[in-house]
Every structure is written in structure tokens, then in C-alpha cells.
Amino acid sequence: MSERAPYGTWKSPITAERITGSSTSTDDVIVDAITSVIYHLEGRPAEKGRCVLIESETGREIVGKDVNVRTGVHEYGSASAIVHDGIAYYSNIIDNRVYKVSVKEGSQAEPITPENKAFRYACFNNHPVDPRLLVSILEDHSNDTPSTVINTLVIIDTKAKTVTPLVSGADFYALPKFSPDGTKLAWQHWNHPNMPWDNSQISIADVTLIESDKKSTLTLSNITTVAKEGCSNGFLAWANKKTLVWVCDVSGFINPWKYDVSAKKAGPIFSSPVKEDFGGAMWLLCFFPYAIVDETGKVGVFKAYRDGRIVLYRVDIETGDRRQIESPYVVVESMRSVSKSTGKFTFLGTQVDQSEKVIVGSIGATDTASFATTTASGAVSKGPDFDSSLVTIPRGISLKVPPKDDLLHVIYYPPHNPLYAGTSIDGEKPPCVVNVHGGPTGMAQQGLSWKIQYWTTRGFAWLDVNYGGSFGYGKQYMNRLWHGWGVVDVEDCITASQLLAKHPHSLIDPKRIVIRGSSSGGLTVLGALSNSSNTEVYAAATSLYGVTDLVGLVKDTHKFESQYMFSLVGGSPEDMKPFEKRSPINYVDKINRPLLILQGDIDRVVPKEQAEVVYESIKKRGGVVEYKLYPGEGHGFRMKETQCDALERELDFYERALGLREGVKL
């Protein structure tokens, strides 16, 4: 029988111990284009973040225990492995060399690139006629400063174990892919000061194959830029030997485009723009948004964002006809073709009440699709096994902001626990944890997260704010953050919190709202407390390795993001005043709300000294501030002990700040 108790005091079986450290993540799905066997990359926090290549159906590990299948290309990595005709090729981040190994059990791996830790490789693609040739990104850190790191495309001869330059001149490259007959190569590229979602291009070239017994290579000719200028073009794939597909945001929304090789003509696949994004920000090279699912290359399954969740479409690439496919998955990443003869495709899928899994979908001539999980436990992100009745179902809400009713997108999770019928206090509204996603060009999605359920099963509401600048809502919404970071995100979080607390929503207690964020989200948290239109909206806050000093961040960041800050904040290397104006470290004296600071002691992005300046300043003024420094942790907590302590410490801090424990108050 359900009981009643005040919100925020409910007992929950979801403990920090059970949901931290021991779980794994699935980072990518890989399909052998010849054998159609599905593999995935599994991240293991319990093994210091080691990433392992797994055969999905059997759960068998393909690489040795001393291998970490990751890459540092673009710093965030991804696209670190490919499997072709039973041979796996992968980057081992331990020495940054590329290796090959047969997927047969007991096989020994061998390096196929020279020994050089300064060279980083990613985005491999085998030539279809001579698969010994592998096209790849090479990121050269021999002179390791943001302005001197060099990105190129190269050819790796996997037999001769040589690396030959192929394409150079752009600041960044992504997704080089041979046409099915091997006569063409296409790739994405962009230059500073752009990020790939700002302005990027696609080029195509003719390929001449030069084969010999000792060494094979190829040359390119007739290099042509084929995509629309002045916008973002990305996530390219060959539908067939005559049709190249990608997504483009020239209409204001990311929609599918195609290029006809014979006609040398590019254009949108849809007859008129669709006001949905068919792709996201390319932080990771592996998060592909569609799959070609028939042998002729005429049909694709595409994902699109709608109201903060994913919908799937069957798209006729020739006619532009699109029809929605019924699907339970609200988060879909890494879409790949499995078998074009049977219409099968695979992806990482998450439901609102089920964790991420490797999913195989099948689509026929109709608009319906069937979905199944791969059978091995290794194909599931291993984590706690709680009863689904504990899960609260999120609601995507588009708030109307006065005076012009501008839209502000949020995801609201109400408190829920089957052991409780609700509050025991008449008229009580729940306390609310406002979460600020990172990026800041990111997006909070609606897939199951046990860390959110940790709070909702205790009687807290949870609010994810997809503030202006978040992707998934069109280019105009994403561009709201242009020169506005530290203002737009801060004010949107405050506005969302206030609107949810009053009529007509009245979902949360306006006096018991707390805010939390990590990294760039931590900047928003600190800005809300110190440099905003209302520094007293939040009853308490937590900054997890939050950015405090934007001037220092610009000086220390890596090549991929070295110009990103100027589009977010404004200014220039010669004019850092906008960065000083937005840096919370310069407004610490205005923080008058309880603040918890969680920090790693070897963090290079946000050095502990910055966190300690904030802590000491508040403490000196007699303010309420607590600080925990975790030994051996960098920018992001990887150790189970740290993750567990941080979550429990944050709960304890809010319980005291909000007076949820009798006789205990900060």
C-alpha cells in the first residue's frame, strides 16, 4: 500500500552505489559491410574508461586487455574503429597507432602505422576494390599548440604499413568515404573560425588506384566542392555509386540533401523544407543520423528531432516522399546499414523507461518497421536493473516567454515513486533540480537516465533546460547563443524555472529550486548566482568542475574549440573584455546562495585554483559554500568512488539547504 510523505523525503531503492562506476556505455555501432556482422564499442568506467570492441551478438571481445580503442582526433575522439571482411582496424589511444586484427578468436593484432605518439587517426574507410588501402584522418600534434596542430586526410597501406598524404589545406576533415565502386572519394571539411555545425563543406574527387605487390596507393583529381556554400553540410554517405547523401541546414533546419554524380547537381531531397532537424551538432564523428536500407540506394531511414525526442522516417531518396515509422526510441545514435537486401539497419536506441541498447531494425516495402535487441549481454549498456515502475516519464514542454511568446524548450520530470501516493502536506509543490546541459551547443534528451530517477524517486522534480543555443530546434534557435554565452543560457534557465513555478504550470515550489551543471553548464550555474537578472531565484547550487574564467579557458583550449569561444562570447584575441565581463570569477562577491563545488585535482580545463578562488572568496565573506577536491580526477569524474561520493554529497547538500531533514539546516 502506498504511503504519503513530503516531497524530497521519499525513500528510494535507487542508490548512488548501484548507478555509478560499474555500468558501461555503448559509444558506437560498427557494421562489417561485407559480412553484415554487428560490433560495438563499449566504454568501461571500472577499467579507467577503457573502450573495447565487442561482437554484439556474442558479446565476445575482439581486442586484447591492454588495448583502449579510442582516438584523440578533435579531442573528443570517436570513429576509432572499422571492421571490413572480418578484419578490424582500430586506433589504440595508448600509443595512438592504428592496428589490424582478425575478428577470429585468438588472433593477434599488429600495428599498421609507424610509431609516433603525436599522430592521431580516425574515420577509417576501406577502398572497395583494394581493401588493403584505408583512408583516414591524420591529426598531427608534433607541434602541439592549437594554431600548429595539422589535420589532413591520408591513405594507410595496411600491408606495407605506410602512411601517404592525400588531402590537405583545410583546418578540419571528417568522414572520408569511397563510392561503392571505388572511383570517387567524398569528405567533409571546414575552417576556423567555424565549428562543423556553423559552416562546413563537402568535396568529391575522382580516384585513380595505383596497385603493386609491395605498396599500393591512390591519387585524386577533379576535386570539386558539391554542397551549398555558407551553411553547414555534414554526415555524408553514398546511397549508390551515383548518389551522395548528406544533411544541410541552409533552410534553417537540418534536412537531407543529395548530389547526382552523373548530372553534377546538388539539391534537397524534400520538395520543400521540413521544420525539423535531421541531425545534430557534430561533437562526435560517429553519431550518424541515417542509414541507407535498400540495394538500389533509393530508401533511407532518417532520424529527426521533434519536441526534444527522436522520430524516425522512411525517406524515398529519389522522390523525397517521407513517412513516419512508429518507434519507441526517444534517443537514436550511430545509425548504420546492416543488410540492404533485407532492409536491416542498426543503431543505439534508448527509451524513456529502458536504457540504451544496440538495436536492429528492419523495414520492408510498407511504412512499418520491426525492432529487436541483439542477444548478448555485451550489447546492452550494463547498469542497474531496477523495476520500470520506478521510472517517471518526461514531458517535453515549449514554454512561451513574454512579451513576444518566444519559445523556450524544456524537459520536465515529475516526482514519482510507486511506494508513495504523493505528498502528505496539503498544497505542497515539489522541490526541483534544474539541470544545465554542457556544450554549450548541446541538447538534453529524454532517454532513461538512472541519475535523474535517483532524484525523482526521492520526491524531487527534475528540469532539463534546452536553452537558446541548444541543437534540435532549428538554426535560429541554436544561433540565439551567438555572442550570448553566459547571458542567454543563464537567463533562459532563470525564466524556465520561474515559468514552471507559476500559473498556468504551477509544477514546482518557487522557493525550493536548485540548479546544477558541469563544465560549461557550471558556468551557467555560477552566472545565475552572480551575474544575472535575479541572483536569488535558486535556493542552492552545485558546480561540477564548472568553468569560472573564460579568459583562461580561451588560452588553454585545444584546436577544435580554439575559435569556438569567440562565436559564443564575441571579442577577439586582441580584445578579451567580453570574456572578462562573462567570467563568474569576477563576480564571486555577489554570490549569496549556498554553493557546492565539486572539482578534480588534475583538471586541465578548469584548474582547481579557479574553483578554490571561488570557494575562498565566499568563505571569507561568511557565505555558505562547501568544496570537495577529488584526487586523480580531471575534467569529468571517471572513478566509481568519485561518482558515488559526488552524487551522495549533492543530495545531502540540498537536503540541508532546503530543510528537508528535521533539525538540519545549512
TrEMBL record:
Keywords: Hydrolase
Alphabetized SUPFAM superfamilies for the sequence: alpha/beta-Hydrolases (SSF53474), DPP6 N-terminal domain-like (SSF82171)
One Pfam family cited in the UniProt record for this chain: Peptidase_S9
Gene Ontology MF: a single term: hydrolase activity
Record flagged with keyword Hydrolase: yes
Domain Peptidase S9 prolyl oligopeptidase catalytic stretches: 448-659
Protein name listed in UniProt: Alpha/Beta hydrolase protein
Lineage per the UniProt record: Eukaryota, Fungi, Dikarya, Basidiomycota, Agaricomycotina
